[in-house]
Write a structure and sequence with these properties.
alpha/beta, 12 strands, Spore Coat Polysaccharide Biosynthesis Protein SpsA, Chain A, 16 helices, two-stranded antiparallel ribbon
């Protein structure tokens, strides 16, 4: 028994040590790559005249695809935001995916819509379309509204692709608010890249909770008042500023957020459109497009990334809604990894199989399991009286220091290069949240990830779950209420 326990201890301690060092080194390398790529991007784009770029004859035409399901609280503000974007050749295709609230009626009333006859070229099969609407007013001529039977987000996007008539499309969640120059910045990689084909491009997403939105435009940026959205601000900083920027530079980016991304429509259609078999349709499409390029010898290509904050979205404000979201993200990751298991360490796919897929497998999917078994192992050591508390405290201090250092680095780059939070004390609020996050937020995320695995493998769950919106108008009311309380 003693020999077995000694072997178990040797195995676990060495495995955990190697894994911990590997993940830390990986994130350090990604941080350095992101920093260098960000510096180069800012230098290269400091003198870009986007107004001149808008007038260029090679500026691509873009369809904005916005699936909507029960988005009544935010849909009017966000459609106004989409229609007011600073771009010339674009259209907005809004898909009402069988909403059970008054979303459709609100849109019809606000934009004076009427049913039209519209020939749909169904390149990708979808659920039946019930009606297509356009506005009677010229000012809203770029808006197309599709009412269809519910088929899920992927099905709604496929329907929008069939109806769109532009060369490229941007997907956006209808609860998001885009920056006015978002389209031209997203289009820039497709214009300037001549040696490689740009098949997709992602953009940075920021947290809109507690921000003020008027007439579809973001007019005031605030740090979220609640602690839970603050933690998610830090997550978004790390994921976009210190993560995806590095993967883009390595040309190994596997994920473009479904909330905001631009795609080459021709390649998307040839690859088969969005999959309705996964809740991680955004990641799955990017992986499948990359596989299509490799397997059909389509030549050199890239998946680009724009580090500018171009889109603002509402994040969960309650643990219940956050848990559903992270559960879904976990199940989506598992589905994508299993659907494309052929990539695993497959040199035929280059960096896609040898680096990108392996990283997601080891450090995105497996990380919660390693943490959980590490905690269980530590509890076992306590029970048998074999724990070295001094060593444990040193390791805990090292992990904590690394975690907050990574967050502080992300905050630093955000403040230096973008400085979206301009009010006095905003940066200190985020730093304070970074100090608390490893103890209050990260363990909860590990639990949600483990539950996502349990739901996927044991309960066989494949649904989306609900995410209730607070709504931007409520944010404005809350701001007014807080102001009134200050006066009192």
């Amino acid at each position: 028994m003693h020999i077995f326990f000694s072997f178990l201890r040797f195995f676990f301690e060495n495995l955990l040590f190697i894994y911990g060092v590997s993940i830390m080194l990986s994130y350090i390398v990604l941080a350095f790559l992101s920093a260098s790529a960000l510096i180069r991007y800012k230098k290269r784009n400091s003198f870009v005249d986007y107004s001149a770029l808008l007038k260029s004859p090679i500026c691509p035409s873009i369809s904005i695809l916005a699936p909507a399901y029960n988005e009544s609280k935010t849909i009017i503000e966000n459609v106004h935001s989409l229609l007011s974007l600073n771009y010339t050749a674009f259209e907005v295709v809004l898909v009402n995916d069988g909403s059970t609230d008054d979303s459709l009626q609100k849109i019809i009333n606000e934009f004076e819509l009427e049913k039209v006859n519209f020939l749909v070229d169904e390149k990708i099969p979808t659920q039946p379309i019930k009606a297509i609407y356009k506005s009677r007013r010229d000012v809203f001529s770029k808006l197309i509204v599709v009412d269809k039977e519910n088929g899920g987000k992927s099905d709604a996007l496929n329907a929008a692709i069939n109806i769109s008539n532009k060369d490229y499309f941007i997907t956006i969640d209808v609860d998001c608010v885009m920056e006015q120059d978002a389209l031209v910045k997203m289009a820039k990689p497709f214009i300037e890249q001549t040696k490689k084909r740009v098949i997709a491009s992602g953009g940075v997403i920021r947290v809109a909770n507690s921000c003020t939105v008027k007439n579809g435009n973001l007019v005031e940026v605030n740090v979220p008042k609640k602690l839970l959205p603050k933690f998610q601000v830090l997550e978004y900083f790390r994921a976009f500023v210190l993560g995806r920027m590095a993967w883009s530079r390595l040309n190994g980016l596997l994920l473009i957020s479904g909330a905001f991304g631009m795609f080459d429509k021709e390649i998307v259609i040839k690859a088969g459109g969005y999959s309705t078999r996964t809740v991680g349709e955004d990641m799955e499409l990017v992986v499948r497009m990359r596989r299509y390029m490799h397997e059909n010898n389509m030549g050199k290509y890239i998946v680009a990334f724009i580090p500018d904050p171009l889109c603002w979205t509402e994040v969960p404000e309650t643990q219940k809604v956050l848990g559903r979201q992270r559960n879904r993200w976990t199940r989506g990751t598992i589905e994508v990894l299993f659907l494309h298991k052929k990539l695993f360490l497959n040199p035929s796919y280059g960096r896609l199989g040898v680096i990108s897929y392996l990283f997601w497998f080891l450090f995105e999917w497996m990380a919660p399991f390693v943490e959980f078994f590490g905690i269980m192992y530590f509890i076992l050591l306590i029970l048998v009286g074999k724990v070295n508390f001094l060593f444990f405290l040193l390791m805990l201090g090292l992990i904590y220091t690394f975690a907050i250092s990574f967050s502080l680095c992300a905050i630093f780059f955000e403040e230096i290069y973008f400085h979206q939070y301009k009010k006095k004390g905003d940066a200190f609020k985020l730093v304070f949240a970074a100090l608390l996050e490893p103890f209050l937020h990260h363990p909860v995320l590990v639990f949600y990830a483990l539950k996502g695995n349990y739901d996927f493998f044991i309960l066989k769950r494949h649904g989306w779950g609900d995410m209730k919106r607070v709504g931007f108008t409520i944010a404005e009311k809350r701001k007014k209420r807080d102001s009134d309380e200050d006066i009192i």
